[in-house]
Amino acid sequence: MAATTPVRERTRREIVQQAMALFQSNGYNATSLQDIATAAGCSKATVLYHFHGKAAVLAAVLEPSHLALAEVVAETSKLPAAEAQQLAISRFVELAVEFRGLISVLQDVLPMIDELPEFADLVAEGIRLTEILAGGTGSRLELDVAKFAINGLLGECRHPGERTDAELHELCDTALRRLLQPPA
Amino acid sequence: MAATTPVRERTRREIVQQAMALFQSNGYNATSLQDIATAAGCSKATVLYHFHGKAAVLAAVLEPSHLALAEVVAETSKLPAAEAQQLAISRFVELAVEFRGLISVLQDVLPMIDELPEFADLVAEGIRLTEILAGGTGSRLELDVAKFAINGLLGECRHPGERTDAELHELCDTALRRLLQPPA
DNA sequence: TTGAAAACTGTCCGAGCGGTCAGGAACCAT
DNA sequence: ATGGTTCCTGACCGCTCGGACAGTTTTCAA
Questions:
Q1: Average pLDDT, stretch B120-143?
Q2: Hey, are the CB atoms on B155 and A152 less than 8 Å from each other?
Q3: Per the domain annotation, does B56 fall within a domain?
Q4: What's the domain count of chain B?
Q5: How far is B43 from chain A (nearest CA, A)?
Q6: Which of A115, A176, B15, B103 would give a disulfide with B157, using CB separation of 3.0 to 4.6 Å?
Q7: Which of B87, B150, B105, B178 is nearest to A145 (CA)?
């Protein structure tokens, strides 16, 4: 009894990896289970053997970024509002650059994410991040500006290859600071 | 020979109206021709009799906003860069508020809009608007910030009913000015 | 070597999609 | 009344999708 069955993990990993690539280039909705299976070199039935439904594949693809987001939220939650905002901006920008490819996937799924129960806490953490980015003033306008910022960032991380990581980083950093830290 | 056959126009209008409502609440991709037909009180074949394909229905739904956008672009194109940017911001915000419901439709279609030939000039006008909003500096960063602004605005106009028109207007105006007119 | 457990697959299913088409119904100038 | 035009529809088509399942192959500890 090995701690983990390597064959199981290997296949799962391959499926997740190929699914990620396909989701990034074609979007979640435009990618079929058959596409994933073909890319992963197995049958569609195998994909469904390892993952109970297409949404479960998506959840596995999103897991690392989800964990990273949760860490940023946890890390910033303990700080006073002003410092938290400051840190959240830079950490969030880093996150966006690191997972830039996955963000278009998120965009594609957003309209239906409320109906997928496996993403409830991801949504909750997104909301929490918004509050932190808003600077904790509780002001309606600032909260909405923070949402605006996230939407802008999500939208801009699409079209991979058009921008280098450094350019994307500068853009997001500039935009977030202009939006969230306007000079008094 | 009447100038227009009223019955034709009445059916067309009903279809477009119901399609607009469905596109807004469920998105373009998640709305089927059958859904539209049922809501409009006719058969799917009738929808296809009046509009040659689903994309044509979308084009009809988007037409008023498209015209309004074209007018804003035309109006601002003649002005010097600084004034043009100033005017574009306020006019674009007004546009966004007026057609706030349709914007989520646009978001839904964006990933595939390049393949729909009927929207080529809409895309072109969107790009032109981006340039005007960027302030005509030609700077890569400012151009990207303008795109960022548009994406943020598009994202925020979703979830109708959560915000009044006035609130949305204030939000978009604030965000665009912070992004595009940062104090020197 | 063997046999149970794990991994995998071919095949089928029902549903929904956008779109076509021949023909029926409504309309209206004559 | 009537005949041609416009409007409308039921039935159908080809296709793709996510998913179910019984049965085969592979794996691996005993």
A1: 94
A2: yes
A3: no
A4: 2
A5: 27
A6: B103
A7: B178
